[in-house]
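Thread: Newbie trying to understand structure tokens

Hi all, I'm a second-year student working on a class project, and my supervisor (Dr. K.) asked me to get a predicted structure for one chain before our next meeting. I've only ever worked with sequences, so writing a 3D structure as a token string is new to me. If someone could post the tokens and maybe explain what I'm looking at, I'd be very grateful. Here's the chain:
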Amino acid sequence: MRRWTPLVLDRYIAGRLLNPFIQGLAMFLGLLLALDTVRRALDFWQGGAAAWAALRYFVFSSPQYLALSLPMAMLFAGIYAFGQLSADGEITAMTGSGVSFKRLVMPAMGFALGASLFSFFVSEVVAPWCNYQVSELTAKVASEVGSHGRSNRMWRDLDSRGRVNMIVFAGEFDAAVPALRDLTVLRYQYNQQGALEEILLTRADDAVYDSHFRWRLQGAQTRQTMNPKPLVWEEKEIMLYRPPEQIEGLDLEARTLTIGMMRQQLAETRAIVTHGAGKDSEAERKLHIFETELALRFSVPLACLVFAMAGCPMGVRPEGSGRGLSYGLSFAIIMLYYITLHYTTRLGYEGTAPAWISAWFANFVLAVMGAVLIFRVPQ
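---
Reply by user tm_fold:
Sure, no problem. This is what the structure looks like when written as tokens:
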């Protein structure tokens, strides 16, 4: 059987896209690293880290921006390459010989699909591991300079009426025991009219988990804070409404998790929200963030495709497209896209909009615009 090979036209257009794609990737990745990663690495160094640790911090922080730079590079490559083809009269010659512009865009879409798959690989395999290394570096340096680093835990719970029911802060969580060290708990009490009546402050050296959300206290003392003559007493046990495995996962960030790990965290968090005692505002906040981040894990890599759809027809102009004009047009579209994405992502984090709308709205708008432009290109 004869082996399939790409058509000459496909190879030619893909070759014209490659050079501006590499240039755009280098430019946008360098810009993102200079604006954010370099500054944060320097702050990390000035915060007490060694130079080698700061360099590792910079290297491990870079892959997440590589995934963001790939769609930007695809947009620039589409605008610039098709602008040059238009300026040289090649698009006119191709369409005049019976090849439709939609057919000319197909190699660019194939190129963009490859970029999307690579972006997905980076965001799913490379970036979570690197982001976890960044968090470990931060925790290590924090402990060396006298901070609790990632070991502290803090959360708050709301009652069924949305009022603060409890705020918990622990200086350290020991998962091996399991136990909370240097524990501070604020418990809020309300009267029948809903007004705040009392706040109980409990301080304990240690809290060791017993069962059914109960923690045994050691060196604990509770006092009233709003009574003119406050009572002070010792407590041996307290209800924190969380088992150790839920407390252990409080500091997990979506950027350090793969899709499978994120789905597991989502299932556990939904169980807390659905079956937990009282209204857990921290669990609800985490649920909205993880749902949105999970949707973004797919929408951002596929942005390469929608950027290609929009960029290729934008490059087709009678006067051609120089590199400066391609840069300017790319920057304008990228800014509009990411401003929109940032705004909708905030809505997803807050639970104001569904996660899939928050993550895919900017892609949908750009895809529609690209499709309209492709069909409106003169043949």
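A couple of things are worth pointing out once you decode it. The chain has two domains: 8-143+290-376, 160-241. The two ends are 36 Å apart (CA to CA). Feel free to ask follow-ups in this thread.
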